[in-house]
Amino acid sequence: MSSRREFLKTTLVVASGVAIARSAPTVASSHNTLPAGLIYTAGNPGMWAKKVGGHAPQVSIEGDKATITTKHSMSEKHYIVRHTLVAADGTVISAKTFYPSDEDPISSHQLPAGAKGKFFATSFCNKHDFWVTEFNI
Ligand SMILES: [Fe+2]
User: Fold this and answer.
1) Ligand 1 centre and the CA of 106: distance in Å?
2) Segment 37-59, tens digit of pLDDT
3) CB under 8 Å to 81, separation ≥6 — which residues?
4) pLDDT at residue 35 in the model
5) Does pTM top 0.90 for this prediction?
6) pLDDT tens across 20-37, in order?
7) Which domains does the chain have, with CATH numbers?
8) How many A from CA of 124 to the centre of ligand 1?
9) Half-sphere exposure of residue 107, counting CA atoms within 13 Å on the CB side?
């Protein structure tokens, strides 16, 4: 009887450990579990498949500067709200907020010293949601 009780205790402890591990994903992997319709990319544009060219941010690197461009017009009713440059660990390196009166949604960002590896550029349209482009330096 005692060994059966020990078996049950062990089974419950192991089962609860698995449940905790599954319910607490790491921040780094949480984007893999987000539902469709929150973040759009050129390769995964969801309902905005016809909007990729004007919404997926494009990135160019020159020296220690990253330039993020969204090929999107700017008007009072429809415009790009914000760009961010984000490191692979989620650190926001730099951000630029736009106003409808701004000419073009282009932003320049200082890269951290020795920047290398994976980064993300984001662009948010007030009508067509949140877009991300992953790139490597
Ligand atoms: Fe848009």
Assistant:
1) 15
2) 899 999 999 999 999 999 999 99
3) 97, 98, 124, 125, 126
4) 85
5) no
6) 333 333 334 445 678 888
7) 33-136 (2.60.40.730)
8) 8
9) 24
- Which of 78, 105, 104, 83 shows the shortest CA–CA distance to 94? 83
Q: Ion ligand 1 — residues with CB under 5 Å?
A: 125, 127-128
Q: CA 20, CA 25: separation in Å to the nearest integer?
A: 9
Q: How far is the CA of 3 from the centre of ligand 1 (A)?
A: 65
What's the gap in Å between 103 CA and the centre of ligand 1?
Answer: 15
94: CA distance to ligand 1 center in Å?
22
Tokens 């200082």 sit on residue:
110
Residue 75: phi and psi, rounded to 5, are -145, 170
